[in-house]
Amino acid sequence: MDRSGKTPWRPPRACSDYLSEFKHCKSLLNRFHYYYTYGTLPSCEQWKEDYNNCREWENHRGTDVKEALQRSERNRVAEQRKFTPVWKLRQDPPRDWHMPLNQEKPQDF
């Protein structure tokens, strides 16, 4: 806690996490996999920029780098939420969930 009694703001991740993500993104194996999957090379600049902003925050506590890190993390979370789930999630368990499974009868899928 600082003098005002508030917990000081910290980046969403440790700076070393941003650097690790950048190194992974630039790795030959990841670039090959990404190219095979998507047909283009991955853009790793956001990880590099986030790392630099994190280091800048640690050294100078600038509000502009704080906002840039928050914006980047919000964009990353929004990007992950764009995809629909593969499986339909149940709201309730099946009616016969407590019954023993019939091992001889094939299950309906």
TrEMBL record:
InterPro entries: Pants/Emi1-like
A cellular component annotation (GO) from this entry: synaptic cleft
Compartment(s): Synaptic cleft
Extent of the signal sequence: none
Pfam families on file: PANTS-like (PF11326)
Record-given protein name: Synaptic plasticity regulator PANTS
Family from the record: Belongs to the UPF0545 family.
